[in-house]
Amino acid sequence: MGEYIIKRTLQMTVVFFLFLVFSYLLFNAIPGNAFSNLLLNPDLPPDAYNRVLELYGLDKPLFERLQLYIVNFFKGDFGYSYKSFPKTPIELISERLPRTLMLFAIVNIVSFYTGFFIGKILAWRRGSQSETWITLTSVFSYTVFYPWFALMMLWVFGYKLGWLPIGKFLYPEKWYDAPFDSDIVFSSMIKFTIVVSLIQFAAYLATRGIESLSSRRNLRFASLIAIFIGSYFYWNNGAALIKKPYAADIAYHMILPVMVVTIVAFAGTALLTRTTMMEVLKEDYILTARAKGISQKRIRDRHAARTALLPVVTSFIFTIVTIIDGSVLTEQIFSWPGMGQLLLQSVLEEDIPVAMACFSFVGVFALVAHLLADISYSYLDPRIRIKSQG
Amino acid sequence: MWIFCIQKGEKLSNFKGSKSWRLILLFSVFALVVVACGDTAEEEVVEEEATETTAAPATTAAPAEEAAPSGPDGVYKMAIFSDPQTQNYWNYLDTETDVWTQYVMSGQAVSLFGISYPNYQLTTSMAAELVETSVDNGDGTYTYTVPMVNGFEWSNGDPITANDMVWTYNIVNELGLLSNWETYYRQASSVEGEEADGIVSLVAVDDYTVEITLNFDAGLSAWQYRIAQAPFLNETYWSQFATSREDLLAADGAAAPVASAFVYNKVEQGAFYTWSYDSNTMWFGGDTTIYKSGTVIEWDNGVAPAISQSFGDTSGDSFTYTAGPYVGTVEFTLYGDQDAAYLAFQNGEVDFVLNPLGVKRNLFDQLSRVPGVETTANLGNGMRYMAFNTRVFPGSDKAFRQSVACISDKEFVLNNVLQGVAVNMDGQMPEALTAWVAPVTGVLADCAGLNAEERWGKSVEILQAAGWTATDWGSHPGGADRAVAPTGVKGPNGETPPSDMLLYAPGAGYDPLRSTMSLFIADWMQQLGFDVTARPTGFSVIVDKVFTPETCEDWYFYMLGWGLSAYPDHPEAFFASYNDTCEGGYNTPGFNNAEFDALVSEFNKAKTVADAIAISQQMEAILFEEMPYLVLFNVPTLEVYRSNVSFPFTDVLDGLTGTGGGYPSLVKVQS
Amino acid sequence: MNENIEQDLQKQLRKEAIRRNWNLFRQSKLGMIGLYIVIFFLFLALLQPFLFITGIWNKGVYDPVVGYEAIKDTLLVVECPKEYPTEKYESMKDCPGEGEINVKRLYLAPGVEVGDYYEAFIQPAPPSSRHLLGTDSLGRDVFSQIMEGSQVAFVLGLLSATLGVGISTILGTIAAFFGGRVDAYLMRQSDLILMLPSLPLLFIISAFAELKVWHLAVVLGVLGGLGGSVITIKSQALQVKVKPFVDSARITGGSRWRIMFSHVLPNVAPLALLFMVFSVTGAIASESVLSFLGLLNIDMSWGIMIYLSQTDGFIFSGLEFWWLILPAGLAVTLLAGGFYLVGRGLDDVFNPRLRKR
Fold this sequence. Notes:
The structure holds 3 protein chains of 3 kinds. Chain A is an all-alpha fold. In chain A, 77% of the residues lie in helices and 0% in strands. Chain A has helices at residues 2-29, 46-55, 62-75, 89-124, 129-143, 146-160, 172-175, 182-207, 213-236, 238-281, 284-291, 296-321, 323-333, 339-348, 352-380. In chain A, helix 4 packs parallel to helix 15 (352-380), helix 6 (146-160) crosses helix 10 (238-281) and helix 8 (182-207) runs antiparallel to helix 9 (213-236). Chain A starts with a helix and ends in a 10-residue tail after the last helix. A 6-stranded mixed beta sheet of chain B has the order 18-22-17-21-19-20. A 5-stranded mixed beta sheet of chain B has the order 10-11-14-1-15, covered by helices on one side. The longest helix of chain B is centred in the first third of the chain and has 27 residues, at 41-67. Chain B is built from 21 helices and 25 strands. The chains are: A mainly alpha, B alpha+beta, C mainly alpha. Chains in contact: A-B, A-C, B-C.
């Protein structure tokens, strides 16, 4: 195992290096550069443009720049943003990242649970009329033209009904006197979410062994209540109390995006769960369980669903990888200035240092997640020990 | 409260039901807990909103209110679409010229001269008088001596003096600030030691007199509209950061002293920005009277130095407005999506959407019907055009360019197909600059009002008259049908036009107007026997192709647009032979005409607007004859604002966004 | 002679297999729904050239890109009130009413006053017998655009899916069959592709390459083919590789390539077909998103239709201009969903475990 991880890490480094080179060349293949707009201002002296290029080192040959970039990259120097000079890409990312993490952590958790739940039902109701209808709905919410759908939802809930805000993540009026930046609120919200989900996960693990369905449920429920009480105290005391109204404002603005993305994203999980669960239902041990006369619900929840969770979890890990990628459209439509918008904007403006930093961030994230997925998969399912891997 | 929660939970754990309604119960209890413990977001917000709406005005404005009992209150809310990259004025003018950065930028800089809107009249700003003439020193240098008004102050209490300008000039040179700074404070000699037109010295004679010496005889575009409008900033605040370009650009601009009534209040990167009224400000009030081409400024608020000056021709109709600010807070909220911004506007969440391009016509039409929405339509200060490459055949042939100009029935496309979304434009000047607009002459005048058949016939005649030949000149069946195109067309010297020529134009996704126009013009050229295809192309690809010296001969036609500045000296930039793109300038067609160049050098020396206009019109007459550009149309800027805000004027070339960024210091807001 | 019989037999067997699979597919209700949807759009895609060739449609009027028909009407110029309801108008929606035009719309027509009659072009025009789905703001037939869009979607979807699945099947099989370095290389290559954020990557590619429909299809196909599907196909091929018939083929002395092509590939094919159908969905969605963001320089597609209605400000007009918003948006969703459902049906056919209990 250890040897495998070392080998993979080495390969990953090589892949990452190639990734860097490839992306850098790609960005440079875009016609023009970050300062091309200067060319369109006739009031500028003609050599002003060249002087800008010189200052930012864009006049050097491509190969030399690439070499410089890679060397500096591994030294930990990502350069300056062209467009937001003298901010560094790291500053920009650390400003944007909490916002994206907060929104999409919630979105992923919600859509994963919804999807898994619906998938379970789908597999179980195989062949029934309701299965057809639920599947049809899921398929169309899965393939719906997302930006169009999101705009429609914005129109309905934000404008027509007026229940929810139209994009953004806060109401400026409420923040006039805020003694801190939204990022501080975001990071405490993220910390809060992480702690809560860890507690809930721990409760889940702790109660796993309990045989009785109802007492297990009740224990989990009690832990949920404990979390609520805990969070009630947390948000009403000390430092968090001042942040509470601001956190609430942000949470209110999160409802619509979370809802819309969940509607689009849950179906993927649901359809996958259905397939894997149906495969599992054909396994011998399920038949055995049936033969033993164990109740249908119990087979579904305790036996089948748990095994079926495996590929679903793996796909979930892969989904997390695409958070930033997938956030581009959502952030654009819901005016949620996070990583996705930063990535999109830096690519469109050819702000290469920022775009490269974003790409590398996504890349590292993806590589590590893939590695973790591989390792955990083989760890969880002894039938697939690492053998076939190169 | 929390004991209640636990009791609920315990009770449930004793419950041993096992049917599906159990789940429902679980959920309902869950919901109960949620409500009881008052912890979820929705719950908080309801509470929050109730308290905020009543408490907000009191708490929000309290510190400012106490200090400034006389300060205005009310909030002017504007939407922006892109996050400003900086609050630092130095940084903003260095390489970052984003309009959004500009709109949100506070008044950190002042200049000697200014421009009054909506009549685009040159006025003084920090200068005590509009110095238009220089002293010839006899050695090829010319000196302007500009007195400044004594008594203006930055918001930190420093007086605004000539030393600020001198210091700014020196810092720009010492730290090597780029792009716009370099433009404003262009040095007399460039790095290579070549003689270049620029500033020889900029010194303060005393605290309130600057002396600027140039090594050339500057005209309007170099003096009044560039150097005299060069921004300068407060020395005391900024000098602590002025150790290097990087430090200066990284400095906090939100805390910088300003020369306006508004200072930054809250900067929430990526969400919103606010300005609040500075209670100690001297920058309020003042009456401005606007004439067609003249302005009178009367300013005496008891704190700032009293000013009473008139500029230009102060006769005829006029109106007067009194400057504010009338609002205590200006808010800029960021919307990532334009539709969302207009939806919020429709909902009354913002008063005005800052959008330099304006609303699309259909949205404008819909919004104009919404109660509480006011609309205004202004022409844009810009043009969309098609350029011929005059370096390569057939673009090099004048008759060819003229015949294409003649057959192109722009009015038809604009009025019928595009349904009057844009206005036809023939000359280089936007119609609203009435004085500058030159009468249409040449082929455009000859072909105006002709139908498709007559245009085709006329175009063929032009080609024939210039010695073009064809094996068969084809015919036009009349009406709306396409002509039978000539075959075997050859140039006057027997050259065969290349086949498969491309007309690069932005795609329908980027600009449906130009895209549609390009399809029609390519088709008309086909009807004249030229193998031209319109090719929808990405904006950056076109720019890269036509503005790169190395590829200046690699295209035949393209369509793009220009946004123009307050002083219309663009024909010089676009058509003077020394600005040829092959040499790195903006003359993409490679237009080279000695007569025109002579007029350009005269134009550059013109000292008064009247002189400049006269020369500009002669220049345009040449352009109408030679047709290096086929100017296509002008797109109006359509803007909408909530009826609870009122502007002193709404008719202004380029719109309320383009000229004044929504005029936060003039706008009145009813709550 | 013998060979002929063998060939006939094989042919018959194949036919038999197809019929069997078709019967299985037919049992899948969802798969059939999907198939009907796909066939419907295929019909639309083919109908348009037919209408043009037979001259039922005049190209000048119905061409989806440069077609134009001036629908003129003389309208009464009115000014919409600031407050509703008024005597004449119930709500904002009723102004301007039938045969009326808002004076605000005529900002470029000088001298027109309230109460005048004005000859205006009706663009966008609501559905009529001439234009089944009305016209867009440039006076072009929306129905024809939908047809053009489905041509684009089919070309793009099928081309990119075929290409992508072709690449990934071959590479996946090679990786499984040769293992070792080849496998490691191919797996890391898919890692590399998976690392690239797909939407920004497509932005970049569309910025430096002039993407026509088929260019985009190739790009999407290659990216899809090199990415994650190689891994899945590989694992399937690995399962086939250890089957007894492969061993027996090896023992009888078949070359590696021969074994790969004649034994392993056919057994991977069902999964590949499934992938193909699913990746059509992805390709259609990618094109629409790129067009929707205004990043593709193609003349017409469903994404462009939605983009134009959005930039023109119709998307938030509620259902007043429904023919500009709904058809294109629904077409994307339906066709993508249709292919997905067909995939579901095929899944049932090829995956015996999923068949009915």
